[in-house]
Design goal:
The chain is of the alpha+beta class and 149 residues long. The protein folds into 2 domains: 2-36, no CATH class; 46-144, TATA-Binding Protein (2-Layer Sandwich). The chain has 4 helices and 6 strands, in the order H-H-E-E-H-E-E-E-E-H. It has helices at 2-22, 33-36, 64-78, 127-141; strands spanning 46-47, 57-60, 81-84, 90-97, 100-112, 115-124. Strands 1, 2, 3, 4, 5 and 6 form a 6-stranded mixed β-sheet that branches. The protein starts with a helix and ends in an 8-residue tail after the last helix.
Length: 149
């Protein structure tokens, strides 16, 4: 153990983080086996707080899992890249339209006892293209968007 610490200190002085990572490339049998196992985590639903009026949020009485699955289904059918958060009801979409790229974050939060808010925020790209895609998403959701706040 002391040898490993000395090697790590020496590597840190020699070249920073990358060098310290190179010092430990060997096989570590039996170490970290617990970390490799995937845990099924339950998603956390955040409360919705209306701070300012947004025209890129919609409301629904359907359960959040159905809404999340619908966002993922939309992304898959359109051929968009997406990433679903493991612990929250949140999806990051990467939309490529020709040479244009739009990044959208979709978040589902609890607005009332039986009402949920779907917020769509542009995190990158052209705002006009974002609003066009938001319109397409709203059309795709159809009857799932059935409430107001």
């Amino acid at each position: 153990m002391q040898r490993q610490q000395k090697e790590a200190e020496k590597a840190q002085r020699a070249g920073g983080f990358a060098a310290s990572r190179r010092a430990y490339r060997g096989a570590h049998r039996g170490e970290g086996a617990e970390e490799e196992e995937e845990k099924i985590q339950e998603r956390h639903l955040e409360e919705y707080f209306k701070v300012v009026n947004k025209n890129t949020e919609v409301f629904s009485t359907y359960d959040p899992d159905t809404l999340l699955d619908t966002i993922v289904d939309f992304a898959e059918k359109q051929g968009f890249k997406y990433e679903v958060a493991k612990d929250k009801y949140k999806v990051k979409l990467e939309i490529l339209l020709g040479e244009e790229k739009i990044d959208i974050t979709a978040k589902i939060s609890k607005a009332a006892a039986d009402k949920y808010c779907l917020e769509f925020n542009r995190t990158g790209g052209d705002s006009m293209l974002f609003f066009d895609q938001f319109k397409n998403i709203k059309e795709y959701f159809g009857e799932l968007i059935n409430a107001t706040y």
